[in-house]
Amino acid sequence: MTTPFTDTVPVPVTNGNDSRSILSHASDPASLRAVGVSAWFGARKVLERVNLMMEARRVTALIGPSGCGKSTFIRILNRMHEVVPGAKVGGRVELDDVDIYAGKLSPTQVRFRIGMVFQKPNPFPAMTISQNVLAGLKLAGISTPDKAVLVEECLRGAGLWNEVKDRLHEGGMALSGGQQQRLCIARSLAVRPRVLLMDEPCSALDPISTRVIEETIAELSQHITIVIVTHNMQQAARVSHECAFFLVEELGQPGRIVESGPTQKLFSDPDDPRTLDYVMGRFG
Fold first, then answer.
1. 265, 59 Cβ separation under 8 angstroms
2. Per CATH, is 21-279 categorized as 3.40.50.300?
3. Confidence (pTM)
4. N or C: which end of the chain has fewer CB within 10 A?
């Protein structure tokens, strides 16, 4: 039996002793399933009947050359594609069997449960670190009895607390690029998402910051379902449990999934020779 979404997001207050308490008290992670998903920008079709199961408490990596629809697909998963003028979606996206495009579900309701971290860190420049963490709740008009506890828990969840605990009243833009990205992750955690989408979250970061983000992904995946777009095959092999290989087979055609399955299999013994060619760096 499915449970309908509600307009409110209860935020627990804990004693802060558990560095992962905001996550352990969150709603159970959700499975996410795309069924026959196609996408258009105006008359141009960019995705063709994508079917993909993204399991709870797993990291699913979307891989493939540029221009094959990976970023479009991940934006479809929390209803961001539809904000582009002329953009259209076909098929279904099911969060625990509830179609997020059906009925009276609003994009805001969907995005509370399916959060998004973008390629370029985007802290709010006029806000402090603390205010950035709480921004989503403030915009939604949701209050929490102990903001300091929630800020600490979310920053711990994003692996950032020890680096900024004495700087909470400084601006978010004062942080390094890698710290800004983790601040954006903390901001996403504050609304207790069941799924977290990441669109190339490390592409603009240095190797040290990338390693920290990857460690954060590994920690978060114990509590939250994660879908990540990456062009870094080593990163996909390191952080993901499952992979989906997207490809445009001929110029002018829409992108589609060639193969999906356990990451280890796609990287060592894929069913389609094009998958092995791509992960080995022979094209793309």
1. no
2. yes
3. 0.87
4. N
